Structure formats: structure tokens, C-alpha cells
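Transcription termination factor family protein, Senna tora. C-alpha cells?
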Amino acid sequence: MYACYRKSLFFLKAFTPTSSISLLPLFPKPSPSPLGHSYRTAESASEKLCFRTNYLINTCGFSPENASQLSRIVTFVKSDAPDAFLDLLKSLDLSDSVIRDTIKRAPRILSCDHARTITPKIEFFKSKGASSSQLARIVTFNPSFLLNSLENQIIPNYDLLRSLFHSDKKTVTSIQRCPRIVTDSYLAQKVKLLQDCGVSESHIARLIGHWPRVLCCGIDLLKRKADELLEMGFHPSKSTFIEALFAKVIISKSSWESKVELYRRWGWSEETLVEAFIRGPACIVSSCHKIDAVMDFLVTRMGWDSLYLAKNPALLYYSLEKRVVPRAFVLQFLQSRGAVHHLPPSYLSSDLRLLETMYDCYHKSLLYLKSFMRTSPIPRLCVLLNHGPSILALKYSTGTSTSTKQSFRVSYLINKCGFSAQAASELSSHTSFFNSEKADAVLKLLRKLNFSDSQLRDTIKRAPDILSRDPVNTLLPKLEFFKSKGASSSQLAMIITTNPWSLDKSLVNHIIPCYDLIKSFLHSDERTMKTLKTCPNLITDYRLAQKVKLLQDYGVPDSSVTRLFRFWPLMMNFKIEEFKSNLDELKELGLHPSKASFTDALRAKLVVRESSWKRKVELYRRWGWSDETFLKAFIKRPCCMLKSESKIEAIMEFFVNYMGWDSLVLSEYPLLFTLSLEKRIIPRASVLQFLQSRDLIEKQAYANSFFLTDELFYKKFVAPFKDEAVELLKLYEEKLNPSR
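C-alpha cells:
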């Protein structure tokens, strides 16, 4: 009754404004009965919800969908409170999109009493010297702090932080960097936990100042990680303790394991890694790419022992381009002249101190000073170099020398490599050879392997610095390794042209382990080389072993991994995170990892882009497949998603519109989408149609007939019908070769 009554009134509301006749007298007024009260309450609630939705759309700029969702969370019935909050956000110079993001994070703020709840917190931070930009960041990233108690939560946390920083400016800055810290209910307990471990207040202040996210983790996690560091031998009174704590808390387990595995591949044992981590915890904070690049440069190119880096782990944290490479070349030059015999302590110091030390060691080395002044961007070096007329002369000659070398490299790339003037000019800035001796030897080595001129240019384009590599000690051992495995000249050319960076990788730590891993599945050098020719990047993928182990851990048998390496090696180029997310998704769909179709499904999920996937699903829907039907077909034959949209459309069009099949028949036989329409489907379909038209076979969908070999198809659908055999064969051949 209530539902009918309510519908009637809504109808009248809609009808009355457009009708000249009043119909309201026909209906009795709502009585003060419980039913009437219930209706008025529901109507009032509906009006308020409608008001809030309209406010969020018209005033805040939300989409109708988002506004509808948020309107059920907020409780304001008038625009006063939300208007005041919006004015506050706009006064902080926030854009409309940032304001919407802020409201999404804490929609209940729109319902708060601005004067009593929000203003006191804003005024508090202003009294502490917070600027508009700092307030904007705090409010934007942690708007819920405005709902917390000023006296019981915000002020106690602020005072605790200030007791560590001894300055409002530093305290506000730390809160700006991590706004959540001001509303952390366990902040005092976490600080006390660190103090009980023996961490000094200055180090706690440094931890919060540089890495405040560490104290935003759970207190149990913080305690567990601190205990782990104490067991490893870290001393809490040293700054390395908080650096290690940052690494242990922030870095995920999978990322940590990846870096440990990477260091192992560079020859570090677990004990070596622990020692390096204790000396310089930053070595585990750097990305895998950065670690690999620094290791590759210092070990492979400079010839250092990787264990030396374990004793100086800070090298793995410094900038490769701005510090490690320039200083390494300077040191290499001085060692070649006998000026220094080991890595001086000043190598890791400031540019100024290093320059002073090196100048003292080898003050007559003009080349060293030229090289260092050119590669170091620090202006104060130029100040030091300006002391004295001889240094001024040196500074002048540096530009001339650099220009001469640049011109030499451009000429070499044009005359010896066949590059255009423009291409040579661009590449010359990425090469570092100063004479033709080494570059000539590199070109001679590659031409000896039957590299064509175009392949040489492609290789140099991808890795211009290959011309400055040592052909005997760096390049030749890798080339000889591949030749020892039976690689032909064409295979070597393909591998090097596509992935010239493989020649920079360590033979012992990178190339051989990757090769042996692939061969352990393919069981022959011939198949392994074919796979590497198809996908040369596999030989330098430092996470290849992790990807294989991930597949095995999910239950994928070795035979399926072998299929991936042999037929679809490009799949192994995808990131390990993509592997894991798609493996999880496939298991949820019900695919069993032990079946061959699982790897087919994984290939489909990795290769097909999300936009293309959605278009194909929609295409199947248009042909009458439900989501359940599509899922069933995909699980049966995942390859139905690897075909192009035009191929799917053409197959559907032929079978459904021309042959008269139900589209659901194709969902039972999704392998049909992989067959050639011209070479198999149309010729065989013509034979079947001919036989059905003569009532020689039943009129039904002979889907399995399309999967038979040519010999079996002939025996089953041509040979039994001797009278029609000649005509059938003629029809079959006409459809198979329509051009004849």
C-alpha cells in the first residue's frame, strides 16, 4: 500500500505542473497515521539526498555517478558548511580537480561545522608558521586530520615532533612531507620504541625529517624490523641503523628478493651482502636497474672486482652519470700513469676535495683536469680552476680539445661507418673514443662475423659506445662463447644487432647463467640459439630466473615452460609484476596451471592490450555470446583471443550468416577461430554443403570436420561418395585455389 501510495503522489507531482485540472482533491490528504509519517520521512530523506547530489554535481563538479555515491556518505542538509570548506580550499589556491580528490578522501568534512571543527586546526598550523602551500599539501593529502581532535591528537603529536626538531619550521616541513604523521595515534609509542632500542633523538629526528613514511607503518612491523636489524649486528647509536630501518620497512619482499638475487649474480654471497648492507644500507634502496648499471660499469668495463663494491657500497647509490663515471675515468687515467695505486678516500668525497687531492697527486696531468672539468657540472670547480694563469690557459684549451675530438668522431662515423652528417653529429655525443685504433678493431671484428654495413649501423645506433669497447677483452669472449654453442654468423648478427648491450654484460655473471637456464629447458644448443635469435633480450634479463621460478611456484610444469621458451620467447620479456598479476587472474578464472591451455591463456593476457581485449569481448557479445559463454570458450581455447577482430568477425559472419550455424556452436569449438578461412574453412564448408544439399549427410554442424587432416577429410567426406567424388574434388580445389 505504501509503495502504491508513494507512486501515486510522485505521479501527481510530475503531472500537476503540466495539467490545467487539479487532481489533488481526488485523493485524500495523508492522515497522521504511521503510514503517512513513514512516507513523509522517506520523502524528506529523498529530497535531502537529491539536494546533496545536485550540490556535488553543480558546485563541486563531480560526475553524476560519483556524486550519487558520495551523497550517501555526507550528511549536510544546507550549503553553508560545504560552501565554507570549499572557500577554504580555494583560498589555498587548489585546482578544482585537487579539491574533488580531497573531498573523495574525506567526504564527511563537507558536513562539519567550519567554525568549530575546521578553522581551529587551520589557525593552529598558521600560528606555527605554515605557509599556504604547506597547508594545501597537508589538507590535500590528509584531509581527515581536520576531523581529529586538536587537543587530544594534533597538538600532542606536533609537540612530540617539535621536541625532536627544536624548530617549528622543521616540524611543519616534516608534516608537509608526510601529513599522516600528525594524526598517527601510535606516534609516541613508535618514538619510545626507537628510544628503547637505543636510537638517539637526533637520529630519530633525521629519520622523520628524511623518511617520515617509516613511522607511518604499523608499530608491530616497526618493532619486528628493528629487532631484525639488531640481530644482524646494526648498532642503534649509528646513523646506518635508521637508514637500514628505512630500507627494511619501505622495500617490499619481492623487490628485496630481486635485489638479493641480482647481487648473487654479481658474485656476492649472503655474508658479503649482509656486510655491505651494514656498511651502507643504501645499497639495497637503489633500484635493480641502477644496481645492475653501476655493477656493469665498474666490474665489466672498469675491471673492478665486484667484492670491492661490497666494501664501498655507497658507490651503488651515487649517480652513475654525474659522479661514478667521470671519477672512474679520472682514476683510471691516473692509475695508468702511476699517480695513484688504489681508490683514495676522497673519491667518495665532495668534488672540491677530490680535485684538490688529485691535483696534488698528479698536478702535471692536464688531460685529467680537462676531463674532470668537462664532466663535472659543479660551478665551484671552475672557481678553483681559475686560480692562476696556467689554470686559465688550461680552461681555454679544454673547449678547443673537446671540439676537436667531437669533430674527429663525426668524421669517423661518416667515413668509416657510412652515417649521414646529421646522424653522425647526433651519435658523436654518445661515444667516447678519441682515436681510431679501438674503433677500427671493433668494426673489423664485427665485419669478420659477416655483419653487413646496415647491420653495423643499426648496432652502433642502438649502442654508440660499442666503438670504444675493448675488442679483445670485452667483446671477443662473448662472441667466442656464442660461436662455441654453434651460433651461425646470421644468428650472431641478429643477436648483436638487436641487443648490442649484451656485449657489455658480464659473461660469467649474466650471459652464461641465462644461457644455461634456457638450455636446461630446451636441451640443445641449437634450439637455445634459435630462441635467442628470436628474442635476444633474454640473454641479459637479470630477472629471467625469477620469472621461471614464479611459473614453477604456480604449478606450471617444465614442459609448458619449455613451450614458452621455444615458441613464444618474447613473453618472457614482460615484467615479473605483470606475470604475477596475470597468473593470479587466470587461477581465479579456473584455469589449471598444469594444462597446456594455461600458458596459452597467459600469452593471451600478456600480449593482448586491455583496450583490444575489451573490443574483442564486445564483438563476441554482439554475436550473441554471454559473459559465461565467452569465459567457457576462453578456458577451452585461449587462442580465440589472440586472433584479430577482423578475423573473428569474418569467421562469425561465414558460419552464422552463410552456413546458418548458431553462434553458440562456435563457443563449443573456439579452435575454429584459429583456422584459415580461405585455405581450410571455405573449401571444406563447400564440400559439406554440397553433400547436405544432396541429402548424402545429415544437415547439422560438422564442426569436427574442420580439424581433420586433409587425408582423413578425404576418406570421410569424399571417398565414400564415388558417384560425386569427381565433382566434390573439383569443388574442393576450386575453393582452395580460387585464382585458378
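The chain has 40 helices and no strands.
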